[in-house]
Amino acid sequence: MxxxxxxxxxxxxxxxxxxxxxxxxxxxxxSITQGKKSGIxxxxxxxxxxLVHTIFAALGLSVLLSKTNYAFTTIKYAGxxxxxxxxITKLKNSNKALKLEEHKxxxxxxxxxxxxxxxxxxxxxxxxxxxxxxxxxxxxxxxKNPLPFIILGTTFAILGTIWYVALTFFxxxxxxxxxxxxxxxxxxxxxxxxxxxxxxISIVLANN
Length: 208
Known about the structure:
By secondary structure, the protein is mainly α. The chain is about 80% helix and about 0% strand. Helix 2 (about 20-35) packs antiparallel against helix 10 and helix 5 (about 70-95) runs antiparallel to helix 10.
């Protein structure tokens, strides 16, 4: 089906996924402050974003994005603005103690998925990563075939889901402790807010 060295891809992809980054921070923050259900919804959103990038790559749109300054810049600044919004929101929440609850309103539950989805989809580095990484495991004669991209992208998303769900169950075990220690939640919001802002700045500084 055009895929080569699949076992090597699995091993290398897992290393990339397990390396702490924006997605890890996002899932941990959701899991610790709002519980495992919130973390799982964020996980599904993030990995749905991976599938969107995969489809773009399979259709050749990511190549266009990487070669067109206007398109790349538009996506880059859209991602920056959204991450800046998330960071400022977290910093504002650090001014008050928030009581953590496992059960959230339906609107809030949906926002966990969409926050993860938008954060990942508006990160042009993900598109460029897929363009640089996936072709290393695709037969050169099949590079224009969308199927190998879809296979690798789906595999990458499944691995990511497994890893982040595991992190979610680990991190959510701290929810009750945070309920009993509001100061921890205040500092977590501050650190998360700063992290989101720095991640947004790193996206803006990404070169085409």
